[in-house]
Input
Amino acid sequence: MTEYLRLVRRGWWILVLAAVGGAGCALLVTASMPVRYAATVSMMIDQKGSADPLSQQRVKSYARLVTSRRVLLDVAVAEYLDPGALAGNVRAEAVPGTVLLRAIVTDSDPVRAARVANRIGGELSGLIHTLEKRSAIRVTVIDPATPPMLPVSPRPRLNAAAGILLGLVFAYGFLMLRSRLDTTVADSDDLAAAIGAPTLGIIGRDRRPPLIVSGSSPRAEAIRALRTNLQFVGVDGRPRSLLVTSCGTGEGKSTLAINLALAVAQTGWRVALVDADLRRPSIAGYLGVDGSMGLTDVLIGSARLPEALQRWRDIDVLPSGRVPSNPSELAGSPGMHRVMSDLTADHDLVIVDAPPLLPVTDASVLALACDGVLLVARAGRTRRDALAQAAGQLERIRARVVGGVLNFAPVRPRSPYPESRMTFH
Ligand SMILES: Nc1ncnc2c1ncn2[C@@H]1O[C@H](COP(=O)(O)OP(=O)(O)OP(=O)(O)O)[C@@H](O)[C@H]1O
Ligand SMILES: [Mg+2]
Output
């Protein structure tokens, strides 16, 4: 999709607001404009006793007479009008290719407009009769002016259209400026472009408790859509273990890891969830399970894996255990690879919750122990360049980014679901 359409899709409500505002302003201005009516009188010029039609040049010169002082002064006096103002309201034109002349008078009063136009017709024929006695030129009113029903100005529809257009132009300019200045990821296109991998899920901002419980909540729907998209990942071998990470903190990695584990387990798969965030573990806290023994204990050899695994609902959970002094070292240890291969042997999918990628190296080394990486981004907060940097970092160590998940996506008004369109680049 082109950049222009993306801007429109993202800011459509600003455009609608600007169009309505533009139309409203135009109508307000229109309402304060004076109402003007135009009356037209048509006259024919001919020469008595001559079969030849008059030259266009001649008709044009008579048209000029219409706005002359000699004609307008008498009309102004008769109508109690200011001659100068009247001159500004009278226009004359020779109808091209004919011997017809038209005088158009605009006025705030439709009846007076018609009366003035007809008086001009009379004055002109009288004047020409006097001036052209010898050449026997006549001016005949063939179509007298009648009071117009509709005003010529203001034109509400035209003004409203101009207002809408102006509003749209300004709003579009604003959207362009905003997108130039905003460096954060806003939608699935941004995310996919930044990480060079498809956006597999979009989860709306949701104030309710973070773990999915009901099958019909928007978050549950979104997680199920992500689960479905993950099934199509990896034609050359389905990933058996997935690392969930993001650029920075608080972007929703841990809650997504838990919810995804729950959703996958619902399909009957054996799922393990590992809290590999050894610095700020949170899985045990979210699930309300005892987190005193876990991954670190297995890695340092003080516990065996089956002892540390806990059953919670339909998933096997490995909490992080005690916070160690050397988390990166532990995450990259051969023991970690062993834990992963043991878990993948007994499970259909192992989901690993990791610390953020950019501040510490833990997530990068953990990525090497997993088959694929799911990159979470927070709409309106995660920067596009940070995502590109994270994806580049993973690419350099040959970790496989299977896709991105846009979290905290703005939820459209009147729709309980976030935008459901996924983008595959
Ligand atoms: N879609 C969402 N809508 C609203 N709040 C959310 C959403 N996803 C996560 N949160 C909230 O954001 C906070 C951080 O979530 P979470 O702990 O999953 O992030 P994290 O990336 O794992 O953080 P950390 O970097 O500290 O490990 C939590 O309070 C969680 O409830
Ligand atoms: Mg976390």
Notes: The radius of gyration is 40 Å.
